[in-house]
Amino acid sequence: MKRLFSSRKRIVAGAAAAGLALGGGAVIAYFTTGGSGSGSGATGSATAATVNQAAPVAGDYSSTDGALFPGSTQTVHLTVTNNGTGQQYIDKVSLSSVTSDKAGCDSTSQPTWFSMPDVTIGQNLAGGATSSPAKDGVITFNDSGSPQDACQGAALTFHYTSS
User: Fold this and answer.
1) Mean pLDDT of all residues in 70-91
2) In this structure, what CATH number is given to the domain that contains residue 151?
3) Which of these, 121, 124, 109, lies nearest to 160 by C-alpha position?
4) Could you give the C-alpha distances from 103 to 25, 42, 132, 153, in angstroms and in order?
5) CB-based contact 68:74 (threshold 8 Å)
């Protein structure tokens, strides 16, 4: 009777089986699946910024004695401070109103007497940061063509908004 396997063939077959088992050649079966879940988070809120006006010096006024008169201008140096803790973009500063210590000398009573073109800040400010350098705005006391005596000797306060 013939031997089915010779010694040599048995050794080769045993080595091949051991190699498959040890070498990772074993077949692994698995299923795939999807899943879902949820979590929570929160976003911050914008905090109102503060517009700062540096005190103008006499050289900033178009009139020779440093006071505004109808038809003259005043340069103001503006910065913006981000009062929040998160980053906020400040695009522009606008003159929102003018008040004074004299009745009838304000932007509510006389909405066309004072003006200022928007001042571009264009800065992304970290929380607590102030824009730099200061940007100049030019406030004009517009000449109405009629008496503007209500503003003679008035102390003016300029109010700004930022966006």
Assistant:
1) 93
2) 2.60.40
3) 121
4) 95, 48, 36, 12
5) yes
Q: Residue 50: which of 10, 8, 79 has the closest Cα?
A: 79
The structure's pTM equals 0.71
Tell me the two tokens of residue 48.
């109102």
What's the average model confidence in pLDDT over 70-99? 94
- Identify whether 1 is part of a domain: no
Say if 36 falls within a structural domain.
Answer: no
Could you give the angle at the alpha carbon of 117 between the alpha carbons of 115 and 120, nearest 5°?
A: 145
Does 42 reside within a domain?
no
Distance of CA 90 to the CA centre of its chain: 5
**Domains contained in the chain, number:** 1
Domain that holds residue 84: 50-162
What digits encode the pLDDT tens for the residues 93-125?
A: 999 999 999 999 999 999 999 999 999 999 999
